[in-house]
Amino acid sequence: MAMTYRTIIVEDEALIRRNVSRKFSELGTRFEVIGEARNGQEALELIEHTVPDLVVTDIQMPVMNGLELAKHLYFAYPHVKIVILSGHHEFEYARQAISYKVEDYLLKPLTEEQLRSLLDAMELKLGSAGDSLAHVSAMLDEQVKPEDIAEAVKLYLKQNYMHEITLQDMAGQMHFSVDYLGKCFKKVMGETPLKYMTGLRINEAKRMLAVFEDMDIKTVGKAVGYNDSHYFSRIFKNKTGLYPSEYRQRLQ
Fold first, then answer.
1. Helical (H) or strand (E) element with 35
2. For residue range 8-21, what is the model confidence (pLDDT) as tens digits?
3. Is 176 helix (H, G, I), strand (E, B) or coil?
4. Does domain 5-127 have CATH number 3.40.50.2300?
5. Most buried residue, 45, 128, 152, 246, by CB count within 10 Å?
6. Nearest by Cα to 150 from 186, 199, 122
7. Pairing of strands 5-10, 31-37
């Protein structure tokens, strides 16, 4: 059975939201719309439970706009692809979208030809082994602010969460002391780097449990950085309230 790619549409105007969803259905591609949201905050709650492959979002929305949503997804859900669908053809929007690795920036109204071309490109990217990653240490200098350091740590973790990582590893990569790195991150983010990394790992594990139904729990754990399957199960239960097998069963 061919893999389907789970998609969420985020748009505050109900007519446009339903129209985009309808276009997905009519094209008959491997992309299945599994949910809709009216703003970024609703989308985050939906993503927490469904962990999609693709999010198509408007920019101008109440409560949380599309760029704020894109920023959150970029750092918290490493493998979710994001596409902006907007009525605003402004450089600043596009520039910010690029900084959060948004895959495409399309203007409304979306034609079927545009959508088919987009989904063909997304299928190639979702099927690839992963993005090319670069170290962040070259971006840092002695004058950076705690906020800059926190962003760099988040980027490093996003790129390396699937490996065994210690605070010493990160400090060495970024040329800071362990204490200074940890204090800067906690001051900005309100949690330690390792706790943040655990969130990344569990979010990716949830996605894999949902998408790869035949993959065993041990393999999922190894893929997100936990070589000990029992430890992985305990961490997953602590974060979600369910063991990995229970989480997968609930989805089914």
1. strand 31-37
2. 999 999 999 999 99
3. coil
4. yes
5. 152
6. 186
7. parallel
Q: The tokens of 16 are what?
A: 């446009």
The Cα-based distances of 179 to 53, 128, 161 in angstroms read: 36, 37, 20
- What is the C-alpha separation between 223 and 232, in angstroms, rounded? 11
The helix/strand/coil state of 78 is coil
Q: How long, in residues, is the chain?
A: 252
**Cβ within 8 Å of residue 140, ≥6 positions away:** 148, 149, 152, 174, 175
Confidence at residue 130, expressed as pLDDT on a 0 to 100 scale = 35
CB-based burial label for 155 (10 Å; 0-12, 13-18, 19+): middle
**In the chain, what are the domain boundaries?**
5-127, 137-190, 195-251
17 within 8 A of 67, measured Cβ to Cβ: no
How far are the Cα atoms of 50, 101, 141 from residue 55, in angstroms, in the given order? 11, 13, 34
Under CATH, domain 195-251 is a member of which superfamily?
A: Homeodomain-like (1.10.10.60)
Q: Tens digits of per-residue pLDDT, 45-84?
A: 999 888 888 999 998 899 999 989 998 888 888 778 899 8
The two tokens of residue 151 are 């962003």
179-226, pLDDT tens digit by residue?
Answer: 888 898 999 999 999 999 999 999 999 988 988 888 899 999 998 999
The alpha helices in 3-108, defined as continuous H runs, are: 14-27, 40-50, 66-76, 91-99
